[in-house]
Amino acid sequence: MTLLKEIKSKRAKQRAKQPLRRDVFSRISGIVRQYRLEPSFLSTLDHAMEVLARKDLAPARVRIKKPMEFPLFSLATQKEYSLTTSIIGRVQNPYLEFVHSPEEILLCEYLYRLNPSIPPERLTRFHFETLVLHEQGKPRTSG
Amino acid sequence: MRRLLDSDLELLVESGFIYLPLLLDPDIEQETRKLFRSKRSREGSGRPGSEAIIRHKDGLFIKTLSIRSLLQHHKTLDPYAYNRLKNASLQKYQLTSGVDDIFLDETLELILFQIMPYFIKGRRGLQRKKLSEEEILDLISERIDIPEKYYSEALRFIDLKPLTDIQGDLEDQKPIHKSPANGLWPARKLRDWFHGAIQAKILADERDRVKKTLQVRQQLAHTKPEHVAIFFYIADKGSIEIEGFGFSRMKSHKEYLIYKRTGEYVLKDYYGRSYLFPDCRVAVSTYYTPLKPLVIEKYKHPFLRGYQAGQEICMGGFEAPTELTAEAVIQVLEEGITALLHSYDARRRIGYHSLDKTFVHIPTIVFEDYRV
């Protein structure tokens, strides 16, 4: 590649529009607003791991995520903001970027512990309950 | 702004400004924190009320609109809401121009007190005593069923106290409305305050009208409410009719069509056959001079050119009066009615049309359907 072509392609790349990605805050804040979550949700979230570990999830049909339109950016009231940041603070794992509902927020930590390397396409498509069942159904390797 | 004031939000009023709850995202939160940190470092240097973001009872609020400015420019910002408030405010104190003007309407006075008594029979019996203005108004309120709402409006109209108070305040140059107290306000409560303030401002702007109305009302202070109610009824409906005599306001202000009904009548043609003509209103307009009689309804008659509404009656050598006086109106109405009822000459067949078919002209209007 000649220097001229290199400069041109570099400039073209610079000119290209960078898509605005929704961040975790916008996503969680969107769920908090849409489902009108209350601060009591945090205590449910705190005990979610114990409950899920004990609970025997019945094998059900494959659940696909419900389509939900998240805002590109989100402005929250102080109550919503505090709840949103608390949720983000408690569930610190990359799967939170793929949740679509409060139920998935509760399953998020458990799923991450079961398998921290699920590909993003699956996380985007399938409901976390289905993924948990799938992970639980896998034969465990010893050691 | 209207949507904000109609919401369930709690707004903060501080130093004449409306502060709204601050919406947050991580960047705004960070900036706010920085702002408060730097504010703490230069505590006491800023003047109160100049802060863009303030903390109140653990909530953050951001400065938005100046209340004074909103009041001043509400007319431009939201003309529809302003006009609604203005109308409501003027109606509350009966300050609408129609109501004021009706008591100063000379044409209406002429019709009610000079022309109407000529056409309606009172309780005079055989006496031909001239009715006083009070007696005429009594007669009207007896003959016309004035709805209760006009009566209660009249009572409010006669009550001078509210307007006297307003004028007193305006002359003392008191502040038109107290500013809202600093602190949290439910949005709807602030909206009510805002509406009150706008209405007070409207009244202040209408200072001249308040003065003029007070003068009119002081003159009417001893008038019976039933009589004032008649004027309210006329201002609203624009017309009344008693014993076939009536008037209705025209589109142009303070102009009327004064009319008298003919009732059904019979005319005879050349061969002595009878034609029954339906009732119609012969009217004279106060707007056009010289004063000429016309028929309001769609009507046909040998003395009317066509078959349509609002036609002038063919009056031959009648000299139409040029000045609007009671005598002139009475004369024109009587001449018009006489022309329709009694002036058709079956033998001479004067007028535009003939009742019976002639072989001289091709008839454009026929009266066969009226034949009895």
Task: Explain the overall architecture.
The complex is a heterodimer of chains A (143) and B (372). Chain A has 143 residues and is mainly α. Chain A has 8 helices and no strands. The radius of gyration of chain A is 19 Å and the shape is globular. Chain A starts with a helix and ends in a 6-residue tail after the last helix. Chain B is 43% helix and 16% strand. Chain B contains 13 helices and 13 strands. Chain B has helices at residues 2-5, 26-41, 67-77, 79-92, 97-102, 106-119, 133-143, 148-158, 161-172, 187-205, 207-219, 225-237, 326-342; strands at residues 10-14, 17-21, 53-56, 59-66, 183-186, 239-242, 245-249, 256-261, 265-268, 274-277, 281-285, 294-295, 311-312. A 6-stranded antiparallel beta sheet of chain B has the order 6-7-8-11-12-13. A 5-stranded antiparallel beta sheet of chain B has the order 3-4-2-1-5. In chain B, strands 9-10 form a two-stranded antiparallel ribbon. In chain B, a hairpin with a 6-residue loop joins strand 7 and strand 8. Chain B is elongated, with a radius of gyration of 33 Å. The model of chain B has no long low-confidence stretch (mean pLDDT 83). The chains are: A mainly alpha (143), B alpha+beta (372). The A-B interface holds A 25-26, 29, 73-78, 81, 85 and B 21-26, 28-29, 59-60.
